[in-house]
């Protein structure tokens, strides 16, 4: 990056669609960062990519990326219609399917925006700054999360409201909660249309 | 339904999952983060390079040395005095005579020294405190000559550039003081590029650029007139360790904390990252070998070791162990051979990893000037 | 204060750190921490009941979670003292909690080979998968694959608990072995002409041709 001037805060109204784009992009990079920082997949399979002004690690594994793209594009559609309440990344023991860690992204949608009303303005650079702050916290989570000392797998759960027709490739799931979990909240960000809170639940007992 | 209502769950809510699942990690894969937790996990070096003495020459107790990554509590002057902060006090240890003297103590219980740095001639020592003050001490007369107030939280990093002293603080700002000016005019520039504590601060050897690192994972480069040149977030953890190359004025090495563990090399004119290496543990401090193309790094969990790297090949030349806590600070002596480290095990240890300087026939003063 | 501000002062803990510990470490009151440490230590030192390991375990867990900035006694020394103290009580030989402390101690050492041998000699933790897993990992990292495999097999043969996990770990180890062998063969194939090169070079040198 060359000489960086103070970015001018160009405030503008973010549309429901635009907001859904920002939020689903955040999901993508948050999930990728978690998978790298938690060592869920081999670090050799990740490459660095610059986004939100920071260097992030993203997977170069085709089948994993295909899964994420598919899931997140449907998620985006639900975001656009204001039907998404929560996205959950579940990290499980690949052998026993036991849930080891559960990352929750809580979404609050401004109903005014869904109804087509006006929402307050917010600068996109400000939103990106907030997102960068959360991604930084995801990196720092090594200070309290346990070592995932087993081969892991992942699943993404989507909490929806008023979804009448579920696409054929989707099915109902249980919540896959962790019993007696410790929960740590990270920061939140808001587009004024969507308000997104991130938190992580983990087991605080010894595995063996 | 009644139950659902009482639990305030909308009956229209559903939890959905994609039927086709993501692939699991490959069979046989083991989490590589494991080495962060076990001391004996990282592979050791095969000694194929020059002989490096890997044991410490001398150990001094340093009781009360604070185990805080963000502070900078050790420096070695051109006059061969080692300044170290232990809790509330600064001590000066004469490396030639072995004599030790207390220089100063902060008055209030609960306060502590949070940073120190020698001026280039070794006459003045800048001291930062937990109550947000920057003091300048005359080391010969053992007297405080200035006190600079302007920060609102502890002062964690200091760096001199001639008569300008830069101070980084937990208040996230960097203040730049011209110590020749009157007290109320001394602060000539305040830099606000960081969002969190500034824990690394280093002027380049020729005084053209100021590098700063913070807990916000940001590395920033300013020029001599305090204009921001570059701001990068390539590390994914705090940036404390900064070292300017003694023989290439625009080459900077930076080290990242626990979540990052990389040493990265930068061309500070273009801010292009030249190379990077994953060291496997928290990088606490970096020192270039003043007379060979090598870089020494000191580390935290889990091995608490020093590593000597060849540059630019980044092959590991040697691993020096001895500290039983993380090696928080390093300083190179005026002869360019000796290195002192301060660890969370409350010891100072002396090493000679850099070998003897080449014979002075070509009088390469540039390579010899990296002592401060 | 927010935990993120002191992220570099929190040593990663294998079992994780509670939210309470995380918050405490973000703004540590040194005296309060030291008081708590002393209290827990007193519970170890003055323990009168029939399960001293419980008090030790509490103390060690606290040290791991709150270790930085709280109290000076370092973890390795505590683990060492604990193992030394309690090994005279044979009833702990077959206690997973005691084995865990031994393994945590081994994790602190640069070369814990002797610890594993000692545990075997004293029959400590013989029935637990954890012992075999840790010992085999130790060998694997030193590229002593044969010994690693032997340790896994020994554990499986003894039916160490939980057996399923141990078997999975063994399988995973064997898969890594297979990968290693495959990679070596691949490397050899990619560097196909290598076996030929030295021969030519030596002939050339005999013939007095300057070596490339």
UniProtKB/TrEMBL annotation, chain A:
GO cellular component assignments: kinetochore; nucleus
Subcellular location: Nucleus
Record keywords, A-Z: Cell cycle, Cell division, Mitosis, Nucleus
Record domain HORMA: where: 17-200
Keyword Cell division: yes
Top-level taxon of origin: Eukaryota
Entries under Pfam families matching the protein: HORMA
GO biological process terms on file: cell division; mitotic spindle assembly checkpoint signaling
Keyword Cytoplasm in annotation: no
Principal location listed in the UniProt entry: nucleus
PANTHER family cross-referenced by the UniProt entry: MITOTIC SPINDLE ASSEMBLY CHECKPOINT PROTEIN MAD2 (PTHR11842), MITOTIC SPINDLE ASSEMBLY CHECKPOINT PROTEIN MAD2A (PTHR11842:SF11)
Family indicated by similarity: Belongs to the MAD2 family.
Name of this protein: HORMA domain-containing protein
Annotated source species: Chlamydomonas reinhardtii
